[in-house]
């Protein structure tokens, strides 16, 4: 996308703002940063408009330091729900990041922008943000797949990555200035990032791998044939989220070719981020004719035991606001008594996860507040349907992934075992 | 020197609550009006009244201007900053300290947003704080008191001043004083509580308030009435009042608004409806049918284009959301991004509405400007949103002229230049003009003297409301 196109996209989105301030009442990062408007929805839109003004007037040496404002945005779109002028400050942040990346030379670069750059370099080189390879497919070791099927399960690496991020963040937080050094070296030598694998939380990895296994169990039991390949690519979500659009397009094209090579027609995503990027965003940038579905789409025929528990469900922002995907609500509602928190449905509040790698303190405050809202329902179990939400809320205290809850409540008495899976007889 | 002051402020509230980087201060330049302030010396976010007091002492000693800021939703430039001053943001002081339904009050900090307060009151007590500005989701208790706001329920419940029992106020010298009380009546000397209400941050900083709260109406029935002529809008209000109806809310929007809401919000309306009236009446399960019948009789006497009614709370809430966002949706009519609207805030006695609205429509046509109208028509409060291009000085001047002209017309009809948005930077000349019109210019000089008593060094929101101290 050309610079001119980015500018006009930003102008179109941010230019609609009338600065009414409604969005500040809901923006989770504003509260998490003790109400510094720079970290809030209206502030971001004001800064974007200021940036556009400056760019019109001069083309180099922009002194406005806007990196943190835009990179701290969760892109949760809650502001969009309330904005009477139809502005999405999340989109504004996303486009502004593209502008920053496309004009690296004229913006003050902050540490955050360097961190984003390191991650993007690593993704381009290793097809994974942390340079993980073997670790991605470990969950599938004892399982068999229908490798000739034209339906593929793409994990998007999301469940797997989550077992490493906490350790890495703690490392950065503890090392402080060494963290900056690490970033500097990583910019030149992306390979250094592969040390990430030593930051693994083994128990968490086991649990998250089991979640992906659960998905396979559920799909098999629903009679779905699908393939899985251990060298599956990461879908490039962070390239898009960090504003590396040129790289994203190049990367997405490689993913498409990989899928074509494997004669794939249909993709089963297992997390909201992968479901969204492949199902909606890819199409905006490249020709992408694959059918993208979510694994929960296949479970309508399965029989679950009615749970005695009262549960609450934390709805991922992507499901409620970007994809309007409410199937998890329906499925959970058919099994258990679900109590929703004060902010739910379209007003559901983000878990804070999307900025966890670069603004852990914001992430922590957002997730702790959200966790409180979920606890206040009085429900015994908190269910999530996204690995990012899972990790962020899990740090507060106990939560369950929806796959865990569903497998737990399958009517196992009807199970037999096939291809390493317990297969439930319909 | 300014460095020392910033250090002092940091000592009071902690480093993390003083913002000094130019980029981080930039969003504070604006409120929801067309005024852009200067980049302030610092933005300070205190956590309690004592910190506010300490901050004011430092600023008063050093003659540093202090601009209080709540939700920053002002439409008149009230909270926009001054170059050498600080912005005092009350956002962190957002606790609901006590709710007492037996005594009909809630004690809250200034940074609590009205939406947050009403969610809490409605969900936990079945009570509410009745003044309901369209900006309620974001406007704060401190801001609505400082502006004496009202809004959609003004016709029934009046403005904020009717709902403030007592205040904690920090004076410019840092003294913390309590005016009024938590009792439903209070009659001890001059009414200093009322003096602070509507003072727009120029007399003191509001830190806490005892607000009067009320049980939620049992049931509401809403009428959506489409009319073809503007005079009928005024006539409908007059006839309803004569029929002894006291609506909770009576709003109107004109054709431009109807059309843009149809386009952006999928609002459904008949094509020939040039004006829509939205009227809420309180009722009970027993009385609803009788009220509907009587209202329909009155409204049908005006040959409306269409009338709908409903008591479905979901539908009522959805229409509220649309109405409250209407002013912002209007901006979709802009042809370029430098265009904005200046909002008039005139009010006339409702009995003047039929003739006044017609005169207003003619005036706008005479100016050949795009200026859609909406308003809290039940109390005669009309907002005309005049489109103007900030990059075109002539156009801006013409828009300001129209704003002033409309103010004068309101005065001639026995009304006022400002009903609820306050004076800020925008209506300072109109304020003087209104008192001159009433042959009461002395009132402005009394205001100046009051300002000097409260704020001898003129540090509290200087240049707002009154240009000169
Ligand atoms: C879309 C939209 C619709 C609106 N609809 C209405 C409406 O229907 N009715 C209506 O009356 N208004 C309306 N307004 C105007 C605005 O919302 C009100 O004026 C509101 O009272 C401002 O509250 P705030 O918290 O945002 O205050 P701010 O805008 O932050 O400040 C307003 C004034 O109060 C002062 N102030 C703020 N806090 C304090 C404090 N703690 N102590 C002392 N001074 C303080 C500021 O210095 C400033 O002068 C609307 C605004 C918008 C954008
Ligand atoms: S709610 Fe929309 S119009 Fe209002 S300030 Fe936020 S982005 Fe701008
Ligand atoms: S997308 Fe979310 S975090 Fe970003 S500005 Fe909007 S509400 Fe705030």
What is the general shape of chain A? globular
The largest pleated sheet of chain B is described as: 8 strands, antiparallel
Structural class of chain B: alpha+beta
Task: Estimate the strand proportion of chain A.
Answer: 5-15%
**Whole-number radius of gyration of chain A?**
21 Å
- Helix-strand string of chain A: HHHHHHHHEHHHHHEHEEHHEHEHEHEE
Overall average residue pLDDT of chain B: 95
Uncertain runs of chain B are none
| Spatial shape of chain B | globular
- The residue fraction in helices of chain A comes out at 40-55%
What is the total tally of β strands of chain A?
9
Oligomer: heterodimer
Biggest interface: chains and residue counts? A-B, 32 and 40 residues
What is this structure, in a nutshell?
Chain A contains 19 helices and 9 strands.
Notes on the structure:
The complex is a heterodimer of chains A (426) and B (469). Chain A contains 19 helices and nine strands. Chain A is an alpha/beta fold. In chain A, the strands form three sheets. A four-stranded parallel β-sheet of chain A has the order 5-4-6-7. In chain A, helix 1 (3-14) crosses helix 3 and helix 1 (3-14) runs antiparallel to helix 6. In chain B, strands 12, 13, 14, 15, 16, 17, 18 and 19 form an eight-stranded antiparallel β-sheet that branches. Bound molecules: flavin-adenine dinucleotide and iron/sulfur cluster (2 copies). One iron/sulfur cluster binds at residues 17-23, 41-42, 45, 83, 85, 87, 89 of chain A.
Set out the fold topology.
The complex is a heterodimer of chains A (426) and B (469).
Chain A lengths: L2 H12 L13 H5 L8 H17 L9 H5 L6 H5 L6 H14 L8 H16 L7 H4 L13 E4 L3 H18 L1 H12 L13 H20 L15 H5 L3 H17 L4 E4 L2 H14 L5 E4 L15 E5 L2 H6 L4 H9 L1 E2 L21 H16 L5 E4 L2 H10 L3 E2 H7 L6 E4 L2 E4 L2
Parallel strand pairs in A: 1-2, 2-3, 4-5, 4-6, 6-7
Antiparallel strand pairs in A: 8-9
Helix pairs in contact in A: 1-3, 1-6, 3-6, 7-10, 9-10, 9-11, 11-19
Chain B lengths: L1 H12 L4 E2 L2 H4 L16 E3 L4 H13 L4 E4 L16 E4 L6 E5 L4 E5 L4 H12 L1 E2 L12 H7 L6 H4 L6 E7 L5 E5 L11 H5 L8 E8 L1 E2 L3 E9 L2 H13 L6 E6 H11 L9 E9 L4 H13 L5 E5 L2 H17 L9 E5 L2 E2 L5 H15 L5 E4 L4 E9 L3 H20 L15 H10 L4 H13 L15
Parallel strand pairs in B: 2-4, 3-4
Antiparallel strand pairs in B: 1-2, 5-6, 6-10, 7-11, 8-9, 8-10, 12-14, 12-15, 13-14, 13-18, 16-19, 17-19, 18-19
Helix pairs in contact in B: 1-3, 8-12, 9-11, 12-13, 13-14
Bound molecules: flavin-adenine dinucleotide and iron/sulfur cluster (2 copies).
């Amino acid at each position: 996308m050309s610079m001119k196109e980015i500018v006009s996209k930003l102008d179109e989105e941010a230019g609609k703002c009338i600065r009414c301030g409604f969005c500040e009442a809901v923006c989770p990062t504003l509260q998490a940063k003790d109400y510094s408007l720079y970290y809030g929805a209206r502030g971001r839109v004001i800064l974007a408009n200021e940036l556009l003004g400056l760019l019109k007037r001069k083309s180099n040496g922009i002194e406005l330091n806007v990196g943190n404002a835009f990179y701290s945005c969760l892109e949760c779109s809650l502001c969009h729900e309330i904005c009477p002028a139809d502005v999405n400050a999340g989109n504004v942040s996303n486009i502004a990041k593209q502008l920053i990346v496309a004009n690296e030379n004229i913006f003050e670069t902050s540490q955050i922008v360097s961190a984003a750059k390191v991650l993007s370099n690593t993704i381009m080189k290793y097809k994974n943000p942390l340079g993980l390879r073997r670790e991605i497919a470990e969950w599938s070791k004892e399982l068999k797949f229908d490798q000739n099927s034209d339906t593929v399960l793409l994990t998007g690496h999301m469940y797997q990555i989550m077992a490493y991020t906490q350790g890495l963040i703690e490392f950065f937080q503890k090392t402080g200035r060494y963290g900056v050094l690490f970033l500097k070296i990583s910019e030149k030598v992306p390979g250094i990032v592969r040390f990430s694998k030593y930051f693994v939380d083994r128990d968490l990895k086991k649990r998250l791998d089991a979640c992906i296994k659960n998905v396979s169990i559920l799909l098999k039991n629903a009679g779905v044939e699908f393939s899985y390949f251990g060298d599956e690519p990461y879908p490039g979500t962070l390239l898009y989220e960090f504003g590396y659009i040129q790289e994203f397009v190049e990367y997405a094209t490689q993913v498409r070719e990989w899928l074509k090579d494997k004669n794939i027609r249909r993709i089963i995503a297992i997390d909201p981020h992968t479901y969204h990027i492949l199902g909606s965003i890819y199409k905006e940038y490249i020709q992408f004719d694959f059918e993208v579905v979510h694994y929960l789409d296949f479970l309508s025929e399965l029989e679950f035991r009615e749970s005695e528990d009262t549960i609450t469900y934390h709805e991922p922002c992507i499901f409620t606001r970007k994809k309007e995907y409410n199937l998890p609500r329906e499925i959970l509602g058919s099994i258990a008594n679900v109590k929703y928190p004060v902010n739910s449905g379209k007003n559901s509040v983000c878990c804070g996860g999307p900025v966890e790698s670069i603004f852990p303190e914001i992430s922590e405050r957002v997730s702790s507040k959200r966790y409180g809202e979920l606890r206040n329902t009085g429900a015994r179990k908190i269910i999530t349907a996204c690995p990012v939400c899972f990790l962020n809320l899990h740090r507060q205290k106990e939560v369950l992934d929806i796959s865990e809850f569903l497998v737990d409540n399958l009517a196992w008495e009807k199970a037999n075992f096939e291809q390493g899976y317990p297969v439930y007889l319909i | 020197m300014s460095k020392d002051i910033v250090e002092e402020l940091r000592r009071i509230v902690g480093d993390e609550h003083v913002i000094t980087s130019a980029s981080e201060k930039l969003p504070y330049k604006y409120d929801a009006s067309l005024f852009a302030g200067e980049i302030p010396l610092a933005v300070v976010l205190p956590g309690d009244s004592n910190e506010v007091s300490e901050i004011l002492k430092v600023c008063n000693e050093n003659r540093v201007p202090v601009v209080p800021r709540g939700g920053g939703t002002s439409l008149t430039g009230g909270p926009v900053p001054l170059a050498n001053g600080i912005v005092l943001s009350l956002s962190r002081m957002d606790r609901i300290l006590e709710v007492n339904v037996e005594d009909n009050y809630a004690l809250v900090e200034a940074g609590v947003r009205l939406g947050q307060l009403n969610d809490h009151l409605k969900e936990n007590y079945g009570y509410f704080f009745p003044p309901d500005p369209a900006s309620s989701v974001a406007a704060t208790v401190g801001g609505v008191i400082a502006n004496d706001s009202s809004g959609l329920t003004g016709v029934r419940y009046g403005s904020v001043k009717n709902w403030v029992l007592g205040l904690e106020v920090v004076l410019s010298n840092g003294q913390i004083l309590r005016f009024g009380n938590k009792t439903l009546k209070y009659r001890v000397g001059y009414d200093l509580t009322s003096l602070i209400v509507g003072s727009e941050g120029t007399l003191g900083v509001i830190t806490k308030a005892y607000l009067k709260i009320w049980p939620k109406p049992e049931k509401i029935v809403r009428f959506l009435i489409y009319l073809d002529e503007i005079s009928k809008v005024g006539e409908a209000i007059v006839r309803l009042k004569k029929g002894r109806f006291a609506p909770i809310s009576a709003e109107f929007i004109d054709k431009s608004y109807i059309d843009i809401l149809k386009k952006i919000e999928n609002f459904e309306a008949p094509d020939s409806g040039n004006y829509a009236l939205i009227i809420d009446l309180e009722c009970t399960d027993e009385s609803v049918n009788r009220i509907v019948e009587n209202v329909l009789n009155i409204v049908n006497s005006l040959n409306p284009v269409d009338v709908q009614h409903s008591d479905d709370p979901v539908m009522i809430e959805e229409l509220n959301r649309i109405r409250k966002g209407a002013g912002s949706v209007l901006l979709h009519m802009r042809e370029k991004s430098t265009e904005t609207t200046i909002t008039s805030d005139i009010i006339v006695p409702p009995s003047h509405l039929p003739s006044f609205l017609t005169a207003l429509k003619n005036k706008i046509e005479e100016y050949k400007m795009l200026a859609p109208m909406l308003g809290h028509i039940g109390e005669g409060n009309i907002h005309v949103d005049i489109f103007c291009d900030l990059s075109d000085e002539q156009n801006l001047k013409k828009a300001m002229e129209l704003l002033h002209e409309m103010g004068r017309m309101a005065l001639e009809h026995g009304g006022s230049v400002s009903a609820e948005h306050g004076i800020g930077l925008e209506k300072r000349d109109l304020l003087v003009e209104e008192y001159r019109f009433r042959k009461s210019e002395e009132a402005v000089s009394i205001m100046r003297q009051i300002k000097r008593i409260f704020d001898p060094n003129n540090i509290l929101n200087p240049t707002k409301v009154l240009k000169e101290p």
